[in-house]
Write a structure and sequence with these properties.
Order of helices and strands: HHHHHH
Structural class: mainly alpha
Number of helices: 6
Shape: globular
Strand content: under 5%
Radius of gyration: 16 Å
Distance between the termini: 10 Å
């Protein structure tokens, strides 16, 4: 049952990150003003918590506990990631946009200089550590709900 819960939580994570996150929100999460950044990450984490709570409710699990855990942990992970990215790449900007990544993967990158692997590796490292932390936390939440 833990794996089923984990995959439902993973689905909610994809919804929150891929479908219900805008470019503007992603930039605001990296705002130089701490209050704007906290508000944006709180909103983003709340969307994740809402989807997780709904899916856990459908499964008849401890939906409130799961939603609150997703809210707190997702906020912490994203806050840390955004602070690291701001320090490395500057505030208020996205180093690699989703559209740029898709173009790079498909071999149609318009900015070969920016998308050169020697410049991308810090972003990839941050991204994989961020997503790994999210996956690990979702599995941990699946174990306790």
């Amino acid at each position: 049952m833990t794996l089923n819960i984990f995959f439902f939580l993973l689905g909610s994570h994809v919804l929150g990150d891929a479908i219900f996150t805008s470019y503007r929100l992603a930039v605001l999460k990296r705002s130089q003003r701490l209050s704007d950044q906290v508000l944006a990450i709180s909103y983003h984490s709340s969307v994740h918590a809402l989807f997780a709570g709904l899916l856990l409710l459908i499964l008849g699990r401890l939906w409130l506990k799961g939603a609150l855990l997703v809210l707190a942990i997702h906020f912490s992970i994203d806050f840390l990631r955004c602070r690291v990215e701001m320090r490395l790449f500057g505030p208020g900007r996205i180093h690699v946009k989703r559209s740029e990544l898709i173009a790079w993967i498909s071999g149609n990158s318009g900015d070969q200089e920016k998308m050169h692997m020697s410049k991308l590796w810090p972003w990839f490292l941050i991204h994989f550590m961020d997503q790994g932390a999210h996956l690990g936390s979702l599995y941990g939440i699946a174990l306790v709900v």
